[in-house]
């Protein structure tokens, strides 16, 4: 009887099998979707990290150096065609000497109310037993001969005529309210309405009745907004333009 029960128990078709922890886990229905979601999250995080690493490199020093190099001021070396820097006082030197500088000199200066008495006396024109303040400067050749008078700056001729007291005179308008006047000329080579370049020949220096004591010379004036001003402040600073001879 005992043998029969033992045989029956061992031949039973249904037997309980012990399942391990991992097998029980993979047997759950939700495990595979959860694994897919986890893998996708890991891949997405990796892609984002890669993009950020390209946009913001770990070592930004080369970019900083490049930025500093671009923002550095341009330097001009010798032998290049770059123009030199403009001096700070360039606005006060917009004109050039209206004749050959090496062959001419200033023989009378501009009458300035603020200058000392000696300088004022040297800038007085004697005519008809009276003294008149000089509204420009007088320029003469060192050899006392006639010389070419040239435009101190580019502009438009607005006057070209003969004055009975001052001889031929020319007026040229420039930019910024500036104009120049050339008198005591023996002739004129330009007409009203002409546009002239800086250095263009306007005529030859001559004599005039009003300043006859100065002989052959150029009477040169500078006007700012219609008012006569000291030409020296607009001419290049040289020994011949800073002191009257």
Automatic annotation (TrEMBL):
An example Gene Ontology molecular-function term: metalloendopeptidase activity
Residues annotated as transmembrane: 30-50
Domain M23ase beta-sheet core: 134-231
Biased composition (Polar residues): 65-83
Region of interest (Disordered), ranges: 58-91
SUPFAM superfamilies assigned to the protein according to its UniProt record, in alphabetical order: Duplicated hybrid motif
Keywords linked to the UniProt accession: Membrane, Transmembrane, Transmembrane helix
Protein name: M23ase beta-sheet core domain-containing protein
Record lineage: Bacteria, Bacillati, Bacillota, Bacilli, Bacillales
